[in-house]
Write a structure and sequence with these properties.
By secondary structure, the chain is mostly helical. It has one domain. The chain is built from three helices and two strands.
């Protein structure tokens, strides 16, 4: 990853699941480790999900299995998260030029 000539690398946070306390505990710890790992590298940025907003609507995002996002609201929110990360990367590139 460091020898590819990339200007910006985005690492997305792991999304929590509904009704899976142990999994979500590990998600929180892993996301914290990711944040710490990328903090000192200027080309790698963590693209966090809007955690407070995500937990507010978490019950409406997943399918019945509690893992995959549903097609109506979940995919729209997922798309917006990816779009936000890309716009963030674009801003970083503009600041550097």
């Amino acid at each position: 990853m460091f020898d590819t000539g990339a200007c910006v690398v985005l690492v997305g946070e792991i999304m929590p699941r509904t009704s899976q306390t142990q999994y979500n505990y590990r998600v929180t710890r892993t996301n914290a480790c990711l944040a710490e790992a990328v903090r000192s590298n200027p080309i790698i940025h963590l693209a966090p999900f809007r955690t407070q907003f995500l937990y507010t609507i978490l019950d409406t995002l997943p399918c019945d299995d509690g893992i995959h996002v549903n097609e109506e609201r979940g995919m729209i929110q997922y798309y917006r998260s990816i779009r936000g990360a890309i716009l963030f990367a674009e801003g970083v590139l503009k600041q550097r030029s």
